[in-house]
Amino acid sequence: MPVKCTADCGRNAVLKRPKTGDALCKECFFRAFEEEVHHTITAAKLFVPGDYVAIAASGGKDSTVLAYVMKLLNDRYNYGLKLVLLSVDEGITGYRDDSLETVKRNEQQYGIPLKVVSYEELYGWTMDRIVEQTGRRSNCTFCGVFRRQALDRGAALLGVDKIVTGHNADDIAETVLMNILRGDVARLQRCTAIVTGSEGVISRSKPFKYTYEKEIVMYAYFKRLDYFSTECIYSPNAYRGHARVFLKDLEKVRATSIIDVIHSGESFSVREGVKMPTQSICERCGHVSSQAVCKACVLLEGLNKGKPRLGLGKSSKVEEHLARQSTDSSGTTQTPTDAPHTAQPSHTPSRSTHSNTLRTLHSLDF
Ligand SMILES: Nc1ncnc2c1ncn2[C@@H]1O[C@H](COP(=O)(O)OP(=O)(O)OP(=O)(O)O)[C@@H](O)[C@H]1O
């Protein structure tokens, strides 16, 4: 016997919302999903009319749904935003080249212009070549650091006011757990912020901060959005993978675990007197860094000098190397020149939630 939509619209339910357990029809689910994102955007005052906003678009489910919903809400609520898609081509053959084809189709489908910047043009390296040098153990570190900077550089080239990313509630809860497990108090303090960015840096925000990944997959599926769902061909970040598995297990016994972990992270405060990193300017490329030389410059130098492990080990070794280098006047170093950046948690590869959630959708049991 069909179950009625709990929103009392008279239609039959076709899904059970992971966030609330409500049985909903497609239309009521779409509306609830969109209204929650709208609420997140307005409650946090993410935009002001006239803002030029870059949507960081990878072609994956999160950023594809983000682009679609940003356009929809901008039109529905007259946010007054000018939107642009910004993609980074990391140079991963068989992965990013294919996902960028999806973004190019999204450009046509949503009528939002697209700008692509590549590691090759910005750094002279593709991820394929970096992996040849580093192997598959630390490649996610290079990818994460360079992508963060590449997005900043692309955004600066476009002249946008703000960047939005598709980071969702699951991503943020995982990051809270990882920072607790690593004892990384500085990142723990800032990882739940919906807006990040300091003086002189284009701010970033996460309109999906409270949106469950499972619901993003459902939304994309029922809207039949065109997105790319293959996993990154390079090794997944094992540490994030552990946090993810742990969270998924918690979610099975307590549906609100993801939001609970985010709330715990938000309530966290650092005792007075605890030493925290201070943000300064990278002495090489002139952009924001918590070290004298930023992580992107260190990693790039390692690659260019055939020492790809430079910057991956203990920071004291890096400092020694840099100190030696600054006394060696003959050393020339290719460094990024025009972008703000700070070291970030490693690149998060795409995951199997897509197929898991779709499997669940096909076996819905009210
Ligand atoms: N190559 C890229 N170009 C532009 N933006 C990117 C790129 N990779 C990631 N991003 C941005 O960072 C967000 C988080 O990226 P992450 O690597 O965690 O992928 P994800 O959670 O699978 O997201 P998506 O489904 O959008 O790929 C993405 O939603 C997107 O906004």
Q: Main β-sheet: number of strands, strand sense, barrel status?
A: 6 strands, mixed
Shape: globular
Query: Which CATH-level-2 architecture of the largest domain?
Result: 3-Layer(aba) Sandwich
What is the chains' assembly state?
Answer: single chain
Within CATH, the superfamily of the largest domain carries the name HUPs
Return the domain count: 2
Give the class-level CATH name of the largest domain: Alpha Beta
Strand order of the largest sheet: 5-4-3-6-8-7
The hetero molecules present are: adenosine-5'-triphosphate
Enter the CATH topology name of the largest domain. Rossmann fold
Number of helices: 14
Order of helices and strands: EEHEHEHEHHHEHHEEHHHEEHHH
Total number of β-strand segments?
10
As a percent range, the share of helical residues equals: 40-55%
What Rg, in angstroms, do the CA atoms define?
Answer: 21 Å
Poorly predicted runs of 5 or more residues: 329-353, 359-366
Q: Structural class per helix/strand content?
A: alpha/beta
Distance, first to last CA: 10 Å
